[in-house]
Amino acid sequence: KLEEFLNFKQLKTSLKEAILLDYYTAGFWWAKEMDFSLVQLSGFMDLLNFLLENLRDKHMTLGDNLKELGRAMAGIGETDSEISGDLSFFSTEQAKAIIDYLNISLFKHYKLYEYLFHNPGEELVISNE
């Protein structure tokens, strides 16, 4: 279903699509295991996508993307609606778990994702030799 939703057409031949599908699938199942509500699950998947888009489209460094994560999660646990951000439906404990998950799944392997997005793949050469 995620393959369909993400509109991946070359999953069998594209390493990039296979890696991204694996990343989103792992994130989805992690969130399900955390018993996130539907709204929380959607917000978490949006956060995963947001961070990957920052890397892919904006070429953000690890430090800049960490700052963006901090901005996105600012105000979680606050009761004042002016302080709480878009992710205010997460508890403080859930926010800590999300940061831990992002650390081991994305930030720890940031250089690999940079390579995936910003280095051209090898050309396949088929010959009779």
UniProtKB/TrEMBL annotation:
It comes from Bucorvus abyssinicus. Coiled coil: none annotated. InterPro entries: CLAMP. It comes from the Eukaryota. This is CBCO1 protein.
